[in-house]
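Re: beginner question about structure tokens

> Can someone show what the tokenized structure looks like for a real chain? I only ever see the sequence side.

Sure, here's an example I had lying around. Input first:
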Amino acid sequence: MSTIKDLNLAPSGERKIRWVEAHMPVLRDIGSDFAREKPFSGLKIALSVHLEAKTAYLCRVLEMGGAEMHVTGSNPLSTQDDVAAALAAKGMDVHAVYGCTDEEYQAHLRNVLSVGPNIIIDDGGDLVDLIHLLGGKCADLGEHLIGGCEETTTGIHRLRIMDRAGTLRFPMIMVNDADCKHLFDNRYGTGQSVWDGIMRTTNLVVAGKYVVVAGYGWGGKGVALRAKGLGAKVIVTEVDPIRALEAVMDGYEVMPMMDAAAIGDIFVSVTGCKDVITLEHCERMKDGAIVSNAGHFNVEIDMEALDRCADEIYEARHNIDAYRLPNGKTIYVIAQGRLVNLAAGDGHPAEIMDMSFAVQAMSAEYLVRTRGQLRPGVVSVPAEIDDNIARRKLKAMGVSIDSLSCSQKEYLNG
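And the corresponding structure tokens:
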């Protein structure tokens, strides 16, 4: 039995799903293939991804392929209750409620694993981590699990640590590292959706402000690029000298966070690491500075220290908490320091997630096709999947490209 807030919310969620379906032509095309071929017939898929409309459509595409879907979210503040209700109303097993406690969140994860899934689709690594903690307590898990797919940078980081330690017990495909995922989702998706969330939540102008972007990976590049386009003066903080040099060459100021803290008006952390913005940084910030996080977990801002040291904490606006510090300054934190583009917005645009979730769907199908052939550990997305998705996307956009002639192929192949 599903665990959702209110089944009566389903009509609203259904409208959202239909909207994104109309703007996800690649996934729609794959869904048609799956409906005909039924690659997941007789298989159970446990999915833990931010539960909003694009994710819901991915679930339905996998279901078209014959999968029995068991679905939960990957962040307590990113679930959209009407979308969860829409899936449950059509008979899908869903365990997700917006604003659930950490204990409830863990229970939802356990619920989708308790069915003994054949494939897992993870976003951040919580399912994989719980599988290894539970071991044989998950019904028939070891016997039936084929493998899984990981959506995001943070999850890949966790998987690589397990792989190096030799503790990852089944193959996990690194969806995030596919070109059709990270080159578009992490850069253009994060760049737009972060500012959608910040601007919708604050209702403040970005132009003319100093924006501090912590981290210059693909996500940070997108956030900085969009901030610049909105008229902000952008400062980048980094620990990697290559990325820092790249940011300088891209025209941004680069400096340590302690220096940037005194200058910035809006802060966005995009690192995947902990304690990127600390209490000491916050104490140096301007009165009224706005702090947000675009990394997967809410560890990039030291919220525990802020909670402990603030003289007063109050809700300044929906999804914005004000922290009045002992030095008299007030710092505003969006969405409790959780993933700002989902906890305070609708996530990446549908056209971007069209490619990301196409990689998920085709990678899951690849797991089934190669069952028993992949070693336990991290597995790269095959190049032919990237190529297939890129070609489908270009076709949907009405874009044609050249092809190599036979002589050109011979020349390139030596």
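Each token stands for a local structural state, so reading them left to right follows the chain. The chain has 18 helices and 15 strands.
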